[in-house]
Amino acid sequence: MNELRIIGSKVETSVQEASFQFANVEASLMTRTPYYEMIRHHLKKGAYWSLVPSSKQGMAESCTVETGEVEVHVQGDTYRLYETDVLSLIDLAEFVVFHAVRDTTLIYLSSQPVYDPYFELVGKIQKLAVEIELKDGYTSRHCSRIMEWSLAVGRELGLSPERLYHLQHGAFFHDVGKVAIPNEILGKPGRLTAEEWEIMKTHPLRGSELLREIYSDQLSEPSVIVEQHHERYDGSGYPFGLRGDEIHIGAAIVAVVDSYDAMTTNRIYQRAKPPQQALQEIKQLSGQLYDPRVVDAFCKVIERDAEIVRLAADR
């Protein structure tokens, strides 16, 4: 059972030894001894970070808010932590999800080594992100936009913090399978042949396979989102022809957001459409290609956040 304590205590830190950054979270190894590791995490406003359940017995973990403000979701409850507050856990049995209300710095203390596996995992992820950029250069900030907009839609739909955490990763890597598609197909300026299109349609499955190789079974949900993000509400999508509620809600979200972003971005084979025209097309295809719940939520997000429309208009 998780033990939860919130106390007021300041953590003294030492010089950073190594660091990495991914999905609006930066982590730096500060101290390592035979008995514990101390890691500093910088979470940008809106970012999600999680402590993952471990099978190791006697594992003690704590997170101190050095600066900022964060929501913590654990055991079905939500806590708001402020500067100097500490969350302590022993033998973690379920996900603990952190959501940065403001830019936040956390000091994470673990009684068992966690940094090296974490560093290796993120290294593989970052390598994939660079490969996507090089293979499909038109995207620039495409993956980050899809992640940010998908999270906004997920919050509008009231998804659980754990689902939002997985959506963050699944949305960011929705197109990771394109690293396995030949350049002459991926960058072809004209219409693809039937054979080329069949090859292109393999990228969701290839992306899912890549993520399953990287993530543990406990973090397999992002691979499902990647696998299904080209499924369509009426069953006309690929690779499985899923329909309606058979489609993972995260994949249904990415389908709408990705389509809107594609419509409003200049591509090799088409010019960008005005944001309002693209939005109108999304609405017209609600209940056919796209989940109506997601379309409604996406429209609310856009109506509330003019920055999304402005970004699309500037591309």
TrEMBL record:
Domain of life from the UniProt record: Bacteria
Instruction: Tell me the PANTHER family matching this sequence.
Output: CYCLIC DI-GMP PHOSPHODIESTERASE TM_0186-RELATED, LIPOPROTEIN
Q: Please state every residue range assigned to the domain named HD-GYP.
A: 117-314
Organism source for this protein? Alicyclobacillus dauci
What InterPro entries does the record point to? Cyclic_di-GMP/3'3'-cGAMP_PDE (IPR052020), HD/PDEase_dom (IPR003607), HD_GYP_dom (IPR037522)
**Name of protein:** HD-GYP domain-containing protein
Tell me which Pfam families the record gives: HD_5 (PF13487)
